[in-house]
Amino acid sequence: MELPNKEAYESLIRRKILFFILFISAAFLAFLLDIAVGSSGLSLYEVFSTIVFPASSDPTSSVIVWNFRLPKALMAVFIGASLAIAGAEVQTILDNPLASPYTLGISAAAGFGAAATMVLGLTLTSFAGNVLVSINAFIFSFVCFFVIYFIAKVKSASKELIILTGVALLFLFQALVSLLQYIATDDQLQNIVFWLFGSLENSSWSTVTICLLILLIFIPLLAIDFWKLTALRLGDEKAKSLGIDVEKLRLKVLICVSVLTASAVCFAGTIGFVGLVPPHIARMLVGEDQRYFVPLSALLGSLFLSLASIGGKICCHKGVFPIGIATSLIGVPFFLSLIIMKRSGSF
């Protein structure tokens, strides 16, 4: 009996590795395409050679790639990974397949922080311009998080309470944003709406570095508890019987999710479905084992946002197409198809 079980396990591992190889290749190709697509008409070979051999590349191509397109493409990769990881872990700790970072109200809080800066000049820092908007979005995201954390801490961090608190804060901050839109001038309203739709236009090497550092810090923090999070999917009681402090684990993951979401939203605005669709696909392909589920979710999140960026450029040659609209146009029909397939028993 051991040999068939061993062969089945090894076959399952090979299948998971094959998925990783396939999607790494797809994500890398989408990354290069995201840089190549545009009015300059760069080929994939020119993009690749400019990145790998910048000294010997054409000066014009080098400026286009390194100064303008590469930071935006990298931000799509890092933000996609951050939101997908956040979505995967929110679904895990709340045991809700429809949960996402936006369920907790963090994105709406960031939107209010940015809108308040644009309309009222409300700020807790001395920075100016787009930096101020990003910093305030980050600060208000953490205001939302600390409210959820405090209530969850007092009430033993039950998943039902976290969901209800997040939904309540979501509607609160959405109402506040609507109020600011109502009193805003035409120019302010245009800026608010554009920011709420999401954009990678403000990407720079500094924002790329910050997002990368946050990923490098918080992915290992989550990886330490991968076995605990996998066990949590068996239910709270079984996880506790294995010696897991469920409440402490939920609060720790909530902190990591909040930082990952806030860092993504404060630099790119609100981008929907990245924290929802990629984790669903990853779960279908590799199951609930966090060792495979979380990395594949991150990989699919990067691929998803890169494809959305490419689609936005193709749809809007002369202007800036908000990437949040592109993710919704791609994500809504895809997610509906997942729901229909699941209800029909296709997976």
TrEMBL record:
CDD domains: TM_ABC_iron-siderophores_like. One of its GO terms (cellular component) is plasma membrane. Its main location: membrane. It comes from Methanolobus vulcani. GO terms for biological process: siderophore-iron import into cell. Keywords: Cell membrane, Membrane, Transmembrane, Transmembrane helix, Transport. Required for corrinoid utilization. Probably part of the ABC transporter complex BtuCDF involved in cobalamin (vitamin B12) import. Probably involved in the translocation of the substrate across the membrane. This is Cobalamin import system permease protein BtuC. The complex is composed of two ATP-binding proteins (BtuD), two transmembrane proteins (BtuC) and a solute-binding protein (BtuF). One of its GO terms (molecular function) is transmembrane transporter activity. It holds the Pfam family FecCD.
